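Lab notebook page, bench 4
Experiment: in silico fold of construct C2
Operator: M.H.
Input chain length: 152 residues
Purpose: comparison with the prior construct
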Amino acid sequence: MSEENKNHPSRSQIKNYLKQIDEFFEQTPLRGLIAEMNHFFQKGNRLLTFPVDLYESGNDLVIKAELPGIAKNQIKLEIQGEYLQISVQDDIAEEVDGNNYYRRERSITEATRIIKLPYPIQKKAAKASYYNGVLEVRAPKVVVQSDILTIE
């Protein structure tokens, strides 16, 4: 056997290593942990971020956010200076009823988006609606008075 072959594992040795790794992760304590991790990532976290569109329509600034599966009472809106903050809190409860056990899991997911407004808006005239998973905020632009002086 040459020196080169001693330094490189054979296919059977590699298969054996992989089998040992598989067996390690199949052991009882780790199997439960891995199953829980798979469950978490398969559920997904739909609120880590949510898409927002910002555009003008006539004299209004329109902000639309897609929030499917969220109830209207889970949404909080706040205008702070030149920013609009959209906060969402989603409570998920999962119940499993079996022959000899009962389990209830609850998770709370929160997400916030802070959108910089391109210009001042009339906060008191702003209106929000929520229909079919889409939040729409409409606010008229503030009429900016010019500070330019005319020369007589």
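Observations: DSSP finds three helices and seven strands in the chain. The radius of gyration is 28 Å.
Next step: discuss at group meeting.
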